[in-house]
Amino acid sequence: MQEPLLGAEGPGYDTFPEEPAPEDRSRVGALQNKRVFLATFAAVLGNFSFGYALVYTSPVIPALEHASDPELRLTKSQASWFGSVFTLGAATGGLSAMVLNDLLGRKLSIMFSAAPSAAGYALMAGAHGFWMLLLGRTLTGFAGGLTAACIPVYVSEISPPRVRGALGATPQLMAVFGSLSLYALGLWLPWRWLAVAGEVPVLVMILLLSFMPNSPRFLLSRGRDEEALQALAWLRGAHADIRWEFEQIQDNVQRQSSRVSWAEARAPEVYRPIIIALLMRFLQQLTGITPILVYLQSIFASTAVLLPPEDDAAIVGAVRLFSVLIAALTMDLAGRKVLLFVSASIMFAANLTLGLYVHLGPSPLTPNGTIGLESAPLRDSEQPLASPTSYLTLVPLLATMFFIMGYAMGWGPITWLLMSEILPLRARGAASGLCVLASWLTAFALTKSFLPVVNTFGLQVPFFFFAAVCLVNLVFTGCCVPETKGRSLEQIESFFRTRRWSFLR
């Protein structure tokens, strides 16, 4: 670590210049230490567990609808609650993050989420009644909501600006990898062992995070300057020049040393980024991503598909992982807004295709009684039946793959990243929790109403609605979303404070 940066004097020592020289700026942006990747990996293991738990119901609901134990056999109403209660728990976790994020700090809040997550998996693994399944699902949802609010903030605050876009995509990347792992394991493991397997990433996360530093910005906001300096030096490397970066963070924290009052919340630099982040999370959920993931096998089982539903779900999970990798590699090159435009356009086309296929396409050869998305056939009797080898039956799989690809390339990871980038530091902990709360309340409403809407109006109606929302997302991106590529968190806050829109165009 360098010698004291504060209070040093002398003609040969320029303490924190107003603007860094070009060579200093390049040194700040350069990755001189790989420890930031280790710290990011340790944190985003929580997102792995979140993605795993989110889609746990996809292979489990079909198994429990034919369970031999009458205490565990699910009715349609119980299946709906089992699928949707996770989002209610996640909303509660987001609400808790509004307090814990600033009370315990980002790292300790992530570690705290391990307790309800481990307890939830244990309850589901040993369930002997429906209430244990619901409680376990709620607890894993609570942990997911808490990590959803804390991890993006932690990752953005420890990342250098040059790679913050790529590292900011890792929470979504690991959530996708967790979902894919669940789909893959679901091909071989019974549902109880799937819950047992969910304990592993939770334990590894706790172990690794115990050796990671807290966010330098959080430590400075608590007056722990020496710890903050040590944390930044650890993250950037012993030979990195961190003087300008530390000064920039310190100045920003000092300007925002107090919490936001209600009067200050009416200032444009405070409410404007919060509203943008809230609307992005709201619109992200209205694209239909959560009900589609939760009921993925159910959707495939109720359409004429060429492959078994569980195989289709695993393929979609692999496509989702590949797409998030593309987003992570291109986010700092193409920019956030370009990917958001591409993402919404692909999702619109995919949802519209799914809706038209369900409405006009072929019916399955035999009724599917495994899942029961609908209580009656979706289509009229005069519609053609699908041949088992008809290539037309690939349409649901291909359209869902394109939907997941579009979401994972933009509105999935970038929404999380922008939330952590644009929220003001003084309100970042509470505002990120508020965003997660709004997001998962929306997800709960969609997931809980999905099956009743399908039973009443048909499977095509939700897809047409999701397609219309994607058009709204295109307009919102063009009108309201700023481009943050290559900017430090302090520069982004300065932009909202000075209202210089040309800064981000």
Molecular structure report:
Helix 15 packs antiparallel against helix 23. It contains 24 helices and no strands. The N terminus and C terminus are likely disordered. The chain is globular and about 65 Å long. The chain has 505 residues and is mostly helical. Helices cover 70% and strands 0% of the residues. The longest helix is centred in the last third of the chain and has 33 residues.
Q: What attributes does this structure have?
A:
mainly alpha, disordered N terminus, disordered C terminus
Task: Look at the structure and give the mean pLDDT.
Answer: 78
Work out the strand percent.
Answer: under 5%
Poorly predicted runs are 1-31, 365-372, 374-389, 501-505
Number of helices: 24
SSE order and pairing:
Layout: H1 22-29, H2 35-54, H3 57-65, H4 76-103, H5 106-112, H6 114-125, H7 130-158, H8 164-168, H9 170-185, H10 191-197, H11 199-209, H12 216-221, H13 225-236, H14 243-255, H15 268-286, H16 289-294, H17 296-301, H18 309-334, H19 336-360, H20 395-409, H21 413-422, H22 425-457, H23 460-480, H24 489-498
Helix pairs in contact: 2-7, 2-9, 2-11, 3-4, 4-7, 4-22, 5-7, 6-7, 6-10, 6-11, 7-21, 7-22, 9-18, 15-21, 15-22, 15-23, 15-24, 18-19, 18-20, 19-20, 19-23
What is the gist of this entry?
This protein is 70% helix and 0% strand. With 505 residues, the chain is mostly helical.
